[in-house]
């Protein structure tokens, strides 16, 4: 529904990944061009994130210039940013309606820095309004205001044969190594498993795949 509102033809759809075992992954329609992971931000995760950032800054990494990455400056917009990351890095595969608000956003922001893209999204009414209306239609019950639940979305995409984790809270994309169109779902799920292994007592993990309809 959200994709349709943003002016994307229904050749691609978001589908639930019901589990990480091979037989459950085999139920996901192929090809898959992106995976969104919803996970809890816990102390363990924040410690890991800081260490990872320092390690990458020290050792460096290869990030292709064609990776579309944006920062997150709007609270609770991680789902929207994850979706933009998923679509933007697969825009050559998408069929957009002529008047698609997302197509215009991507065209306008292609030459911007990750920070400029975040600022542009803050003022970009069409996507924000769509995000807010779809958030109210969602089936997941919103946590009560007293709960200190901090759930966050990241996007996993294949750009030029490398698997990137795109998270607007991080200063840069994270390159998780080589992948291919055929192995992408399995490779992305391996990255998801690492998130789960870092927080073994946590159950609030959920993955959805952007699959061919």
From TrEMBL:
Keyword terms: Cytoplasm, Hydrolase, Phosphoprotein, Protease, Thiol protease, Ubl conjugation pathway
EC number: 3.4.19.12
Residue ranges of every copy of the UCH catalytic domain listed in the record: 1-212
The organism's place on the tree of life at top rank: Eukaryota
Site (Important for enzyme activity): residue numbering on this chain: 167
Primary site of residence: cytoplasm
Homology family: Belongs to the peptidase C12 family.
Assembly mode: Preferentially binds diubiquitin; the interaction does not hydrolyze diubiquitin but, in vitro, inhibits the hydrolyzing activity on other substrates.
Protein's UniProt name: Ubiquitin carboxyl-terminal hydrolase
Organism: Crypturellus soui
Species classification: Eukaryota, Metazoa, Chordata, Craniata, Vertebrata
Gene: Uchl3
């Amino acid at each position: 529904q959200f994709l349709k509102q943003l002016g994307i033809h229904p050749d691609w759809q978001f589908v639930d990944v019901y589990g990480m075992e091979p037989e459950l992954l085999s139920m996901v329609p192929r090809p898959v061009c992106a995976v969104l992971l919803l996970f809890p931000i816990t102390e363990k995760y924040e410690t890991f994130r800081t260490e990872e950032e320092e390690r990458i800054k020290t050792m460096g990494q290869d990030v292709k210039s064609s990776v579309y990455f944006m920062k997150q400056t709007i609270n609770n917009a991680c789902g929207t940013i994850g979706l933009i990351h998923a679509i933007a890095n697969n825009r050559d595969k998408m069929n957009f309606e002529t008047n698609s608000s997302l197509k215009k956003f991507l065209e306008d922001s292609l030459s911007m820095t990750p920070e400029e893209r975040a600022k542009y999204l803050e003022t970009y009414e069409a996507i924000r309004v769509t995000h807010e209306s779809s958030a109210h239609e969602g089936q997941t019950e919103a946590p009560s205001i007293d709960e200190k639940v901090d759930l966050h979305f990241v996007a996993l995409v294949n750009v030029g044969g490398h698997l990137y984790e795109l998270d607007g809270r991080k200063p840069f994309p994270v390159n998780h190594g080589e992948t291919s169109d055929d192995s992408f779902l399995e490779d992305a799920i391996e990255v998801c498993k690492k998130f789960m292994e870092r927080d073994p007592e946590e159950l609030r993990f959920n993955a959805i795949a952007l699959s061919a309809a």
